[in-house]
């Protein structure tokens, strides 16, 4: 036998019954996005490496060490490209917005869902192929859309029944304010150079802000005593931040201000926020976002303000599971029992008519051993979770009928139904109101 091949490390198969949770989440997300008038976009999974280097920033974790990049072979179609599997979707979305001049007639509210790729150490809540749902509002400058995005996330938590997430907020100000703070921050860390870990030493002159984001407890003290970016903000930046807080307050949205919240990607300014939970161990951030007013220009587009967030789907689903939320099971309404293969053409025609009427119908299919006994077919009908077995027996068929047997109401009631008029009784089989 050939050697067995397995999935790539850190990349997961999503299979039934687990996939039902994904479908449920996706359907809910679609509904909530529509309620906020956000529209779906789908960008390619492969992009030019330069998009991420310029868009995310050269000295970020992602670009420094996490990207799946390769040099595409040059053939007569190719142009000898450096390509990367997208590690996130904001850069690609912004590229698409600029490339198609989508802001020509005003701001846009967009959302996406899909797989992202980062070469990280696989662990709980951290994978190499993972999924994000993101919402982005482009072309709007005020704190009102920042608030709208937070309200959108909130609506989503409500729709999926999440309770244990809290909102953390900060402002990164504008580049000039950050530059002033940066100088002070470097000076502070230099004064405590003996206490910096390897990561911090490496970042000291490239990206000192990121040191604040350290997960190393030994650095807690020097990080907490570091100069706060908030104290370097000018009037305009503060007004933006206060505007956001006022809307959140008016909506009863609780938050805490976390001056060390900086985000791992380089493109943020003004508002940054995270929704975090204590229920997922150290991988507790389930949604992260902020304003990125300079990104579009940075990748060569016409400058336009923008703000957005991304949700880690795996982490959200784990949280949903942790909370014991019951997801409706995707079971069929009916299972066809077909004792004799000669009845198959009629049975399949009836099932097709039922499906057209909206009934979820599972056919019984033959294995290498044939259709199996009546009894074994019934076992399968029961295991399928269907509420009814449809018995296409020879006697019933000779009368132009099928027997409908209730499997779950404890009565085992059998009702003969005419095959000539399937649509007339189809609705009696539907329980989709209960478990769709
Ligand atoms: P972290 O600090 O956990 O590495 P990050 O700053 O790299 O997060 P973002 O790039 O902001 O994360 O991504 C947004 C969200 O996507 C995260 O809050 C998280 O929920 C999820 N996420 C990021 N990386 C992974 C991963 N490797 N596996 C699973 N989920 C992830
Ligand atoms: Mg990361």
UniProtKB/TrEMBL annotation:
Domain Aminoacyl-transfer RNA synthetases class-II family profile as annotated: residue spans: 25-339
Subcellular location field: Cytoplasm
EC number assigned by the record: 6.1.1.21
Keywords per UniProt: Aminoacyl-tRNA synthetase, ATP-binding, Cytoplasm, Ligase, Nucleotide-binding, Protein biosynthesis
Taxonomy, superkingdom: Bacteria
A molecular function (GO) term: histidine-tRNA ligase activity
InterPro entries membership: aa-tRNA-synth_II (IPR006195), aa-tRNA-synth_II/BPL/LPL (IPR045864), Anticodon-bd (IPR004154), Anticodon-bd_dom_sf (IPR036621), His-tRNA-ligase (IPR015807), HisRS-like_core (IPR041715), HisRS/HisZ (IPR004516)
Assembly notes: Homodimer.
Family to which this protein belongs: Belongs to the class-II aminoacyl-tRNA synthetase family.
Designated gene of the protein: hisS
Enzyme class: ligase
Name listed for the protein in its UniProt record: Histidine--tRNA ligase
Coiled-coil blocks: none
PROSITE patterns: AA_TRNA_LIGASE_II
Signal peptide segment: none
Reactions accelerated catalytically: tRNA(His) + L-histidine + ATP = L-histidyl-tRNA(His) + AMP + diphosphate + H(+)
One family name in Pfam for this protein: HGTP_anticodon
